[in-house]
Amino acid sequence: MAEGRHTIYDYLRTTKRFPSLWCPGCGVGIFLGALLRAIDKSGYTKDEIVLISGIGCSGRISTYVDFNTLHTTHGRALTFATGIKLAKPELKVIVIMGDGDAVAIGGNHFIHAARRNIEITTIVINNNIYGMTGGQLSPATPLEMKTATSPYGNLENPFDICKLAEAAGSVFVARSAVYHVKPMEKLIGKALKKRGFSVLEILSQCPVQYGRRAGLSSAVEMMKWQRDNTVTVEKAKGLSEEELRGKIRIGVLADKEAPTYQERLESLRESLKEQVGAV
Amino acid sequence: MRTQLLQGNEACVKGALAAGCTFFAGYPITPASEITHGMAYELPRLGGIFIQMEDEIASLGAVIGASLAGAKAMTATSGPGFSLMQEHISFASIAEVPCVVINVMRGGPSTGVPTHPSQGDVMQARWGAHGDHPIIVLAPSSVAECFKLTIEAFNLSEKYRTPVIVLTDEMIAHMREKASLPSPDEIELVERPKPTEPPEWFVPYRDPGTGVPAMPSFGDGYRYHVTGLVHDERGYPTTRADEVEPFIKRLFQKISQDFDKLQWGETYYTEDSTLNIIAFGSVARAALSAVKEARARGMKVGLLKLLMLFPFIRRKVTQLMESSATILVPEMNMGQISREVKRVNQGRCRVETLNKVAHEPMTPQEILDKIEELYG
Question: Domain boundary residue among B186, B218, B245?
Answer without folding.
Answer: B186
